[in-house]
Amino acid sequence: MPSFLSRLQFCIRSFGLMAVFLLIAINTGFGQTSAMRLPVDPDPLVVLTSAGEVAFNIEIADEPAERQRGLMFRQSMPVDRGMLFVFPEESRQGFWMQNTPLSLDLLFISADGEVRAIAPGTPFSTASISPNVESQFVLELLAGTAQKMGIEVGDRLRHPRIETAGAQ
Questions:
Q1: How many H-runs (helices) and E-runs (strands) does the chain carry?
Q2: Residue 162 three-state SS
Q3: Which of 19, 44, 78, 85 sits most deeply, having the most CB atoms within 10 A of its CB?
Q4: What CA–CA distance (Å, rounded) separates 36 from 161?
Q5: Segment 11-24, tens digit of pLDDT
């Protein structure tokens, strides 16, 4: 029969492991339910459509934790706003909408600023949104914005972050 002291040591070790897990969870954002707000970039993102130029004020998610959180928990967003996800290099990108209550348009953009695919994002869906194209950037806009503004596959985007990537 285990002694009181050995049971106490077991409880202390178990509590210590739970405390470590809790600290890791807090530091990695597990359980967060508040929206991440990034500063609006001073330079507008401009889309060159067949009907003319369309400008958006954007937040830039260029760090892994920012790209992971994105627009999760965001209840609203102005129609002229978007979030530009910046990846280190062109590759096939995948997104999902878990914890995202907004319906979105996702524009998958090459390193040189060409829209390669436009896909819908359904609120709270865990289905993968990953068109069969390579992209270095993904722009999230409110659902229907791409169609309303005449944005199509093949259109070009201008922004200092995209121009820097395209020059490499």
A1: 4, 7
A2: helix
A3: 85
A4: 21
A5: 455 454 344 343 34
